[in-house]
Amino acid sequence: MSKLTTGFLGCVHDKCLILVNLNRTVESSKRVFGRFLYAQAMQGKYAVQAAQGPRGEQGRRPFPYSLYRFICSEIRKGDMLCRNSQSFPGKVGSRQSKTKNGKEQNNMICKKLTSKERPTFPRRAVITAGMPYGNKNLHFGHVGGMFIHADIFARFLRDRIGKDNVIFLSGTDCYGSPIMESYRRLQEAGYEGTLEDYVRGNHEDQKKTLENYGISLDFFGASALGEAGSIHRQVSAEVFRTLYKNGYIRKMTMPQFYDEEKKVFLNGRQVTGKCPIPGCTSEKAYADECSAGHQFLPSELIGPVSSLSGKKPVLKDVENWYFDLEYCIDTVKKYNDFLRKNTNTRKYQLETVEEFLKKPFLYVPRKYIVDLAELAAKLPPHKLTDEEKKPSVVFAFENLDDRDQAKNVLDAEGIHYTSGKTLVPFRLSGNVEWGVPFPECEGLKDLTFWVWPESLWAPISFTLACLKAQGKEADLSRWWYDEEAKVYQFIGEDNIYFYAIAQTGLFTGLQVPKGEVPDMETVHLSHIIANRHLLYMDTKASSSSECKPPMADELLDYYTKDQLRMHFMSLGLSSKSAGFKPQVFMNEEEKNGVDMVLKDGNLITNVFNRLIRTCFYGIQNNCEGRIPRGDVSEQIRLMTEKAVLDYERYMYNHEFHRISYVLDDFIRGVNRHWVNNVKIADATNDGEFRKQLIIDCLYACKVMAILIHPIAPEGCEMFREYLNLGEELWDWNAILEPVSFYIADLENHQLKYLEPRVDFFKKHDSQLMEL
Ligand SMILES: [Zn+2]
């Protein structure tokens, strides 16, 4: 650490320069600081981190935002990486920029923050929202449980890191047996279109619904259709070849259900039964997974029934390609531990992953065991846990082969058992006709990819398709495999196994050949954000349940998208499930208290609307429609700064419900400030006092609009229009600047005239009629 000049502490950290402003005025800082930085940046030497001393410590002033913005613009001239942070040099960067082997540590973009630290966002970001399956349109859970959260984050990042640095994508998951199965039923009911017509229709409907909710996808593809579909077929073949070359793939014979009456192999959803995982509460299980996301082998399914004939199917051996997921158990475990220690990955999500990372267990109920020692002697090497109070004894095996051998022994003895969660080989291929063709290899042909694995790399295919449309295909690795970029994937908790376990194995396998020990701190993996269940009237929504949940589009007949977006955001879902209880779908006697959708929407449709209007009318009546000149009061400045820093932190941690608390406190707080003080202004008829009040509230409204812009963009855009300002208003680098910052000629800047009773954030027509 070296002292650069009085008032600054500088720290040159490899290729990262960190500077702390101690106690300079803005003007003198600009002079000294700027010249130095500019010289450095032009030499192309350093990425720059501007840091700030903790507030309140003696002799240190907060890092001024105008200075920060100035530095940013200086740095941009040199096209350097710029981040800002609130902690001290030494603390920033100690693990952030480099790892032991000198590679940049991409995971630190998601690092766990210390209490005073401001978050670092990546330079480029891909955001994906879990792919909806192509057999129906979206119900409220797709949109409210995940898409809206992903969209809010994507819109925030566009404002925070620049819109050219964000790609937000999703698409319809088109293939697989469930789609064939629903198409078959539809055909029986008289549908005359092709399978592709059917999927395309659902894809178009999904796209329309997402648009209706303002989901701002840069790309919404379909894994089977058009250009994206053809790119996806190429990417899939490439993924197989790479994994094969890297040694993770093997051919295995496994039993598959076969319907003897219909003379066909049955896939996935064509077989139903009960989940074999102990304690599972799922209503339905299929050939190798249950509705709660458990994975098992077909032979483990309890009471299988064919959906084609209604008969019990038999098991026949078939050969398929498998990914060695059980080989990756240590890798996944190491990675999970790393995430737990260092990143803001959700805790429950890490625990869910952890549960799958146990050695292969078999549980044998005590009542079936005559002589435990005799039985144990017949089994392959294992660790035995025999606790008197437990109804079962537990055998823990080193590997799957040993466990399977043990199963054979138990089967032969007629002893019942259940197996625990563990990693099993991840099937890549199958014989479903409707699938991505699988490359012919080692004499195995006419196979297709199983839909789950190919849907995991579909976002890569979609990124390629999106870039190709802009003529930037070659840029793929800048988005997926770059230290400065991060991929954020929003999913539902049922899919944690696939995205946080199978994908971790697969994507590591694409980057590191088998046998080499991957450094899990530098392998490029997505940041997974799994939302908990969004319940409907307190029950888990599934289209099969009694209480049929509404389709996403139906809700828009009663609420505006902004009201719904505010409400779904406030339900959070980051650590616990929450119930969606729209009163318009309740009987009179079920209604209890206020409709929460309206209540959450009120913050913008009532309070914020009113606050903006009072500012505008105040300026129109007292200042001839021109923004008054003057500094924001200390009270409002501090309040605003706190709201901005809290909001930024919660956004970084994807704690959406907390964002709604921050907004609620901030907007209602400023509104109270207005209401209390305007009375004083009226009573004293003090023009200066009134002017200060207007300056304060307009400033707060401007910041509120930037904060709400990702959540309810249209009303915020309307506010910007009335301010008569450009898109630069949304740039987070200037979020704390006064309104005058954006205006070259304040004296002559005219606000758009606001007519009485204009709403920036609209209510639904049906709600207006009730008034
Ligand atoms: Zn289950």
Please outline what is shown here.
GO terms for molecular function: ATP binding; methionine-tRNA ligase activity. The protein contains 21 helices and 26 strands. The chain is an alpha/beta fold.
Overall description:
This is Methionine--tRNA ligase. Its EC number is 6.1.1.10. Residues 126-359, 422-592 form the Methionyl/Leucyl tRNA synthetase domain. The chain has 21 helices and 26 strands. It has a 5-stranded mixed beta sheet with strand order 1-2-3-4-5, with helices on one face. The model is unreliable at 1-18, 20-30, 41-64 and 75-103 (pLDDT under 50). A hairpin with a 4-residue loop joins β9 and β10 (264-265). Among the domains are: 2-97, Transcription Regulator spoIIAA, CATH 3.30.750; 359-420, Elongation Factor G (Translational Gtpase), domain 3 (Alpha-Beta Plaits, 2-Layer Sandwich); 597-770, Orthogonal Bundle (Isoleucyl-tRNA Synthetase, Domain 1). It is α/β, with parallel strands linked by helices. α1 packs parallel to α2, α7 runs antiparallel to α8 (347-356) and α16 (596-622) runs parallel beside α18 (656-684). Zinc ion is lined by residues 275, 277, 280, 282, 290, 292, 294.
